[in-house]
Amino acid sequence: MPLRSGVRTSASAETSGDGVPRTAAYPFAERTSLLEGSEVRALFAVASRPEVVSLAGGMPFVSALPTELITDAMNRVVHDRGSQALQYGSGQGRPELREQILDVMALEGIRAHADDIVVTTGSQHALDLVSRLFLDPGDVVLAEGPSYVTAIVVFRSYQADVDHVPMDEHGIVPEALREHITALKTQGRRIKLLYTVPNFSNPAGVTLSAARREEVLAIAKEHDILVLEDNPYGLLYFDAPPPSALRSLPETRDGVVYLGTFSKTLAPGFRVGWAVAPKAIREKLLLANEAAILSPSMFTQLIISEYLTTSDWKGQIATFRDIYRERRDAMLDALETNLPGLSWTRPDGGFYVWLTLPEGINSKEMLPRAVENLVAYTPGTAFYANGDGADFIRLAFCYPEPERVREGIVRLADTISAEHGMDSVAAMQDRTAS
Ligand SMILES: Cc1ncc(COP(=O)(O)O)c(C=O)c1O
């Protein structure tokens, strides 16, 4: 199975002949050539115009939060503990918040100790810290195909290669995982991490089944591969909770680093997430955290602690579930009505649907036409390190109101039909010419 090396070899306008990227006067470090802005970033700027229905970004619907509760929590923190809130704090995070995080994780079957937790600046920061600890240039990270785009960016920024293991509607396929490991080992590659978003994955909206969780963990253990379990969406289920977290199985505890966040169950603006890691890893994580940021924000940690102490936070998560369920239903319903011949995933939670396009349509090429039709999505290519994914698009139902979700799907269906028509014409012309 061919792996694309993350390291560029050819010289370009921004690189010198030796492949080292340069600015006019100052040479960047070699690894920065792997920090690429999204190709569709410019389009997304256009897509943020109010007349465009954006099914592109996975932005939580924070307007559903009770603003007065957050304001009260913030005011109390500033008034009662201002000098603490505005000061540096512990590199591991506040003990009180770490205790509260135990209560949050207990909802997903995870039992840990507050000492096991390192508070980070969102789980994105934890992804970076774990990568910093484990990835050397040329190492391999196994990841679901498709995988969360900004995790791929982080792994590649440490000059690791991402190898995508196929998934189906039950998550990553264990037989495929075994095959990939065997092939990579035969090539002499060093596999460092298995990255997974087991619940309502970003971007596929798929959940790893309970049976597969055990199997995947057993395979990882057999091959000494550390599992990086990224779980921002687990509490946002629509009917029944997902199977217990990988980290919840006692026998595999030492082989899993678990990432959690308040970004989806509260708000991403606080930038508070956490990692739970076995002792030896956690000690290094803490040092890496201190090296990167000295300490996570005392201000936002205190506000979250206050919010968790004084509000019905579980009730608020239930409110978010209701809101997202209604939007998921609106999207699935509109897809059935407007794109009956196509297939898509049916998420039981989270933010995303993964749609398969008719053959011959390229999701990236179609995007400008979609934006012209006032709807935006994320092309599937964003979620693969190897250029795959052109046949797919990710549709996020989390942010627009249900009616806007429906309208967005109507516009998308129009765009796909037009694209399909165009393609048929092109194919006909090709046939006539030959
Ligand atoms: C799978 C996954 N991991 C991590 C993150 C980053 O979250 P945070 O806001 O905690 O940094 C996201 C955000 O969308 C995500 O979808």
Q: Any idea what the shape is?
A: globular
The structure class reads alpha/beta
Task: Give the strand tally.
Answer: 14
Helices, by number, come to: 12
Amount of helix: 40-55%
The main sheet comes to: 8 strands, mixed
Query: What is the radius of gyration computed over CA atoms, rounded to a whole number of angstroms?
Result: 22 Å
Distinct compounds present: pyridoxal-5'-phosphate
Ends apart, CA distance between termini: 35 Å
Task: Report on the architecture of this protein.
This protein has helices at residues 41-47, 67-85, 95-106, 122-134, 149-157, 174-186, 210-222, 279-293, 298-310, 313-338, 363-372, 402-433, and strands at 53-54, 117-120, 140-145, 161-168, 171-172, 191-196, 226-230, 256-261, 273-276, 343-344, 352-356, 375-376, 378-379, 392-396. It is of the alpha/beta class and 434 residues long. It is 42% helix and 14% strand. The longest helix is centred in the last third of the chain and has 32 residues, at 402-433. The strands form three sheets. Strands 2-9-8-7-6-3-4-5 form an eight-stranded mixed sheet, with helices on both faces. It starts with 40 loop residues before the first helix and ends with a helix. The chain is globular, with a radius of gyration of 22 Å. Mean pLDDT is 91; it is low at 1-13 and 423-434. The protein contains twelve helices and 14 strands. The structure holds pyridoxal-5'-phosphate.
Question: Notable features of this structure?
Answer:
434 residues, alpha/beta, four-stranded antiparallel β-sheet, 12 helices, globular, disordered N terminus, binds pyridoxal-5'-phosphate
